[in-house]
Amino acid sequence: MASLKPEIAAAVKVFEPNSLRPAFLPARYKEEELASWRSTIGRFPRAGGIGGGGIRSGGRGANAPIGTGPSTGGAVTSTRQAPRPLPKGFVRLSPQEIEQKRREGKCFNYDKRFTVGHKCAKPDLMMLVGRWEDEAEEEAAEEGPPKLE
What we know:
Layout: H1 6-13, H2 20-43, H3 95-104, H4 133-143
Helix pairs in contact: 1-2
């Protein structure tokens, strides 16, 4: 088992083989499984990396303009989708409103003071929406430099 790749050895070890012969079959199965994963992963462009592209970027090369690629025939198109409207009863606070409520120590739902153990008068289902830093950077890069007016 020492000569097996770590990912294969771990799968074979589960069967606790007492000799080489019973270890061969699980090792072969695991090798086939890994090979199929590699071939599946190889069919999709990697997200990021040199010459990457990826599912999120539509399979473009690293330096291709946004919206170009095999599906658009080389034409530049916008990949940004319009924001979905919020369901009835939901209110989206702007970053400035959130910061102001934090500074003032107020509840995000009501204008009452937030304290430890605070419970809103009417229980609501809350949903936090955020972005990873790399997504924010990608969006900023897509928008281009800020326009001066």
